[in-house]
Amino acid sequence: MTESGASPEDPWVKVEYAYSDNSLDPDDEDSDYHQEAYKESYKDRRRRAHTQAEQKRRDAIKRGYDDLQTIVPTCQQQDFSIGSQKLSKAIVLQKTIDYIQFLHKEKKKQEEEVSTLRKDVTALKIMKVNYEQIVKAHQDNPHEGEDQVSDQVKFNVFQGIMDSLFQSFNASISVTSFQELSACVFSWIEEHCKPQTLREIVIGVLHQLKNQLY
């Protein structure tokens, strides 16, 4: 007959004890496996996302350099120093910088030309107004200015005054020495360039010129 109480030394009891131990639980082993797999999967996803982001960055930079070579005219010109080789990024950047500086100079030059043209336009507008006023004044007084003298007459008056002054200057100035020349010049000015003397010279020249004209 079987006894109601089981001895701890019974082999079946040992087996039950073994299965009841948490360290040997099959569910715990599966849980550790899934956690490790999740960690590996997360690392792979991060690595893949980083690789994709880096590739996008490289593609964007490449497109930028390709666009520069298309836009900048000097990048399209044949450079015999490098032959048929593809332009390096450094050369593309340098050519781009040079072209931008060229555009800045051209812009400044065009701005200066525009400023000059605006000044010319302003001057022409002023001349136009002046000529319109002259034409209007002539239309209002058609006989005005008929007795106006020419520039030649003005020059003859000036020439007559200078000739008269030079005659007295030549007769009064001594060139023996520079000191004597200086003294004679001041003396001549005080004597022959007085307002009254000049007035008499001008009256004489005008009288003589009037007789020649009429």
From TrEMBL:
GO terms for molecular function: DNA-binding transcription factor activity, RNA polymerase II-specific; protein dimerization activity; RNA polymerase II cis-regulatory region sequence-specific DNA binding; RNA polymerase II-specific DNA-binding transcription factor binding. Residues 100-127 form a coiled coil. It is found in: Cytoplasm; Nucleus. Keywords: Activator, Coiled coil, Cytoplasm, DNA-binding, Nucleus, Phosphoprotein, Repressor, Transcription, Transcription regulation. Residues 45-103 form the BHLH domain. GO terms for cellular component: cytoplasm; nucleoplasm. PROSITE patterns: BHLH. It comes from the Eukaryota. Residues 1-61 are annotated as: Disordered. Residues 32-43, 51-61 have a biased composition (Basic and acidic residues). Transmembrane segments: none annotated. This is Max-like protein X. It comes from Aotus nancymaae.
